[in-house]
Amino acid sequence: MLDKKYLLPDEAVRLLLKHIPFKSLPSEFVSLEEAYGRVTYEDILSPEDLPGFVRSTVDGFAVKASDTFGAKESSPAYLTVKGDIPMGEIPQFSLSKGEAASVATGGMLPEGADAVVMIEHVNTVSDDLIEVLKSVSPGENVIFKDEDAKEGEIVIKSGVRLKPQDIGALAGLGICQVKVAKKPMVSIILTGDEIIPHTEKVSLGKVRDVNSFTLAGLCLQYGAVPIKMGIVKDEYDKIKDIVHEAYERSDIVLITGGTSAGVKDLTSRVIDELGSPGVLFHGASIKPGKPIIGGICNGKPVFGLPGHPVAVYVCFEIFVKPIIEHMLGLKERQYKTLIKAKISRSIHSQAGREDFIRVSLEEKEGQIWATPLSSKSGLIMSLVKADGILRIPSDLLGVEEGEEVLVEIIN
Questions:
Q1: Which among 310, 395, 390, 308 has a CA at the least distance from the CA of 350?
Q2: Which of 269, 216, 281, 256 is nearest to 17 (CA)?
């Protein structure tokens, strides 16, 4: 029977967030070139109208729409061509009734024009006369000077992670730098007598560092800066010293290993001694990742992560990622890509616990099937081979073979 002292993941995250102010990181200005993926610290206002002038969306002829009303192939409207408008230049003339001007896509309309007839709907009679074969309405095939953005309007709200199209829009407005939340610094500490650097040859009983690379990559993916603090032996004084150093250097501290019960369970003690209130929970109702420790030390999050690589990945996604986003002041929800699939074999789960199952995906006869991979959290290759994660809620006892499930795609 499940021990009731363990919190469900959402409960544990809410407990942590109670002790951390939203948008708790300071701001900084970065150039537009450095703003990709950064989180806006304040609303960004348009400094001007965009595009700033009335422009054509097609190749054709700028006209007064009223001059084309009723025009059709059997009864065309005849207009005098007053001139040509070169791309990137301001027209040096205006249109009067019965006049038109040749214009290319993106070109500026002359004064007096309020629509553009597509070149496909025009016959050229002579150098200065055209037949319009189809009528247009005012504003047709035209972008007005403030149609994309009006001066003073909010174009991007605060708490938004800037996407490439956002940066493009800001460039179009002439904005050269953006006020963003400073990236959180995340210290990564590995504990364990069995851990060796990835550059060393493995001997029996030893394993190479996997977790610092996984964690560093996840930090970068979600907008944080990883600081690798190295590998520490399972000795209290050594762990305490490196954790205190990490605490001073970073905004979030991640300690892997040393979270299970036993004589080597030193992480919880170190976190408790680091600051108030200390450890908020030791263990959560998830698999893998049950031994996770979550603490707040004088407003700074400190985590004790399990040592198994898959558990480390799952715990970061479930517990650490929301903390990073909260500290950055991210307001928009980061949706995961979910797809429907049928499970290829039954999976049993324990009531009151959330299970995170790695699955591979395969399409057979138009149907996507999800095949569960090895459940052992110490096998990193099961995560490498996985296409997605199947989350079994705490109120289910599992899923049956052939049942339709939602799979969260791993990026």
A1: 395
A2: 281
| pLDDT (0 to 100) of residue 300 | 97
How many CA atoms lie within 13 Å of 391's alpha carbon, on the beta-carbon side? 16
Residue 378 token pair: 């110490």
Q: Is the Cβ–Cβ distance between 292 and 306 less than 8 Å?
A: yes
Residues 6 or more apart in contact with residue 63 via CB below 8 angstroms = 79, 95, 99, 100, 113, 114, 115, 116, 117, 132, 136
Rounded to whole angstroms, the Cα distance separating 357 from 213 reads 22
Contact 264, 234 (CB under 8 A): yes
R_g over Cα of the chain: 31
* H/E segment holding residue 118: strand 115-118
**Neighbouring-strand partners of residue 62:** 101, 116
State yes or no: cis peptide before 277, omega within 30 of 0: yes
CB neighbours (10 Å) of residue 132? 22
Indicate the helix (H) or strand (E) that contains 215: helix 211-221
Q: What is the pLDDT of residue 411?
A: 79
Place of tokens 């460039």: 171
Phi, psi of 407 (to 5 degrees): -115, 130
- Can you say whether the dihedral through the CA atoms of 31, 171, 164, 319 is positive or negative? positive
CA–CA dist 407, 359 (Å, integer): 8
Query: Given CA atoms 393, 397, 398, 400 in this order, what sign does their dihedral have?
Result: negative
Residue ranges in the chain modelled with pLDDT below 50: 1-3, 263
**Pair of tokens at residue 86:** 């070169």
Torsion of CA 38, 40, 41, 43, to 10 degrees: 170
What's phi and psi for 169, nearest 5 deg? -65, -40
Query: pLDDT value at position 76?
Result: 97
Residue 278 neighbours by CB distance under 10 Å? 17
| Sign for the pseudo-dihedral over CA of 295, 298, 301, 305 | negative
d(CA 68, CA 49): 29
Distance (Å, whole) CA 123 – CA 47: 42
The answer to whether 172 touches 103, Cβ cutoff 8 Å, is: no
d(CA 215, CA 313): 7
Q: The whole model's pTM is what? A: 0.88
In tens, the pLDDT along 260-297 reads: 555 357 899 999 999 999 999 999 999 999 999 999 99
Backbone phi, psi, residue 51, to 5° = -85, -10
